[in-house]
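Hi, here's the filled form for the chain we discussed.

Project: internal
Contact: R.S.
Residues: 324
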Amino acid sequence: MAMWKKFVTDYLSFTKKDRIGVLVLLALILIVVLLPLLWPAKQFAKPAKEELAKIKLPAAQLNKPAGGAGDTDSRRNEYPIYEYPVKKNNRKENAAVFYFDPNTLDAAGWQRLGIRDRTIHTIQNFLARGGKFRKPEDIGKIYGLFKDDFERLLPYVQIKKEAGFEKNEFEAKKVYQAADKPLYTPKKFTAAIAIDINSADTTAFIALPGIGNKLAARIVNFRTRLGGFYAVQQVGETYALPDSTFIKIKPLLQCNHPAVQQINVNTADANTLKQHPYIRWNLANAIVQYRSQHGNYTSVNDLQMIAIITPEMFEKMKAYLTVQ
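And the returned structure, exactly as it came back:
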């Protein structure tokens, strides 16, 4: 019995603060339950019968199966469908025709003839890469030129013949065709005359087949960093120059003046040597360290005594080194 009284005293009795807390909690619960009864929710008015009829009528017409043409037209007038505007190309309607030379005509002239901007861009790229229109029918090789445009412009093509142009013909892929089907299949590609790789500028390189502005600039920059070419094969080492393109232009390259700028290995430091494309930092450092330990080089051939220099490496860089 004493144990039961102790249990009731410890676990089932409440202090004065506990009783006040329970009463406050019960009061809050009662308020929450009675609140909706004191302020009832707002009742929305029901739509009138006339408004319901206006809503049901279009829904019934939409579910109605399609009838004849008259029924379709009446529903289209009642519920118009938005149609996206179609941009009309009036260039051909307003196009002019006049005698022109496709090798010298500018972009504005092609636009007057009614040619699309994309096709004009193709023509300008073709001319910039050294291409030429040799006869009026050659305009049919332009990629993107429609057959009706070709037939419309062909009678007005007048190509001025260039004097003293030396032709070197090479096989070329069929890359110029009309938009729908090829009109003419080119069998030969006419390239410029051979150039000297040490004196040619970017314009001369661009005239070669497959060489654009970027490749021409890279060849010239590589030549400057080397200090000049001593062999045609070095052009093929230009960054991003495809082997197929180099094989195509190799017969047009000449090295008539193989004089190059040389670096004195007895006075140059490692930073100077590593600037050369054929000499990296580890090789430049080895050349300087060997010179510090054994004295100046008496001949460029002494570099072959450095262990990390292979015969292939020595053959490539020896023309650019001197001991004087």
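Let me know if anything looks off before we file it.
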